[in-house]
Predict the structure.
Amino acid sequence: MSEFDLIKRIQSRVKPRADVVLGIGDDAALLQVPAGQQLVVSTDTLIAGVHFPDDCAPADIGWKALAVNLSDLAAMAATPAWCTLALTLPTDDGGWLDGFLDGFLELAEQHDMQLIGGDTSRGPLSITVTVHGLVAEGRALLRSRARIGDEIWVTGTLGDAAGGLQQWRAKKLQSAKLRYRLDRPTPRVEAGIALRDLAHAAIDLSDGLAADLGHILASSGVGAEIDLGRLPTSATLHQHFPLEAERWRLQLAGGDDYELCFTAPVTQALAIEQAMAAGDTVVTAVGRIVTGHEIIFRTPEGEAYSLPSVGYDHFRSGNA
Ligand code: ADP
Ligand code: MG
């Protein structure tokens, strides 16, 4: 199959949006940004063996490539609109591409997002997606707006994906539920939009709560206290990782949750619970913003707890 055939195959499956003046097929896409809206843009690359296990199904890779990008839009409270896809493929395998598009386009359609262009080349498998979202002027959620006294919230449950990854690495028993959380993260797009008027600051959890909340603290010039006993934990994670300290490590220093972490004034607590319940999103208050510049973790007994290591850095050896 030629590069042109591969592009045709992609183009034939795209669902159009009214604001796309020109999509795939010209030198560039032409898009109509509505008056009064700001364009929110984010890019993420996925590399085989680094961002997904190399036994991952093509549909799961397609899903995750878009999901991790949508998660960034969610954290900005943006409404998804358009995306581009730069694909580097080892072979011209049409079957692989079809599977990849099944996952990618399923998620795109769930969020009424149109694929408007990209690039196709040969090389070791790597996928770069750029997403474009819209938000009314000045209404995006930033990392830099956390205030002392805010409560710190997270959506969903934490640590499941990291648990799935750890089981895969150990090549032993794998929980299908944990593996699903690793391969098919749910970007919290609706939650992010619902938080526009409720939250002060937000980030999505890609590298673990410790590292990602740390970004909010650094941008906002504040510190935090986290109650370890309140971390939302799935029954499956409990069952497969019965040791508390191991669960905390997965939840704080593991990655790939793609949940939202946000801060909000205490007075918004009820409104947050109602807004999240309306979208069937579990939400949990796990701590508070305080003066300082670091995170203090507290055990259920109230003692300070220090974490062995934090987050994942592609340019440092080892991972959490
Ligand atoms: P150019 O040489 O001008 O970069 P290409 O041949 O790379 O053009 O692309 C032709 C058209 O196909 C462009 O509209 C481009 O955005 C689109 N395209 C190429 N690869 C992809 C892809 N993987 N997914 C979506 N659109 C693609
Ligand atoms: Mg090109």
Summary: The mean pLDDT is 95. The radius of gyration is 20 Å. The chain has ten helices and 13 strands.
